[in-house]
Amino acid sequence: MDKPYASTVIRADADEVWAYLRDFGNLAEWLPGITTCEIEDGGTLAPGAVRRIEGAGGVFRERLSSLDDPERSLTYEILECPLPVRNYRATCRVAPVTDTGEAFVEWYASFEADDPGRVAKIFTRGVFAPGLDSLRKRFG
C-alpha cells in the first residue's frame, strides 16, 4: 500500500513546535488552502474532538484519535472528505534533533483506496509537504 509521508527540520525547539502543532483546531493558521477549521460542538482539544475543515479541496471532518504529549504526537482519522479514501489515519510527530536543538517533524498516513498511489501523491504533495513547509517558515 502506498503511504503518504513528509518530514522536515524546523529551526526551533521541539517542545515549542509541539505546543503549536498539538492544537487540533488551528489548522487554518498554518496549512495552505484551508480557509476555516473549527472544533465542532464547542468540543475540547482532547481525543474524540472533531474538527470541520473547509478549503479549496472541499469540506473535511476529522476526529482526533490520540494526543500524546510525552511522545509529541497526535493521530487523527478522516470521518468525511471529498477524496476516495477509506480507513484514513494520519499521525504528526515532533522529535528533538539532539545535536542541533532543532525539531524533526514528520506527517504520515495509512488508508485504503481504489487508486492508492494517486491518493498518496495528493496527500504528500498537496497537504503534508506544503503544510510542513509552512510550519518551517512560521518558526524559521
From TrEMBL:
<dbReference type="Pfam" id="PF10604">
    <property type="entry name" value="Polyketide_cyc2"/>
</dbReference>
<dbReference type="InterPro" id="IPR023393">
    <property type="entry name" value="START-like_dom_sf"/>
</dbReference>
<dbReference type="InterPro" id="IPR019587">
    <property type="entry name" value="Polyketide_cyclase/dehydratase"/>
</dbReference>
<protein>
    <recommendedName>
        <fullName>SRPBCC family protein</fullName>
    </recommendedName>
</protein>
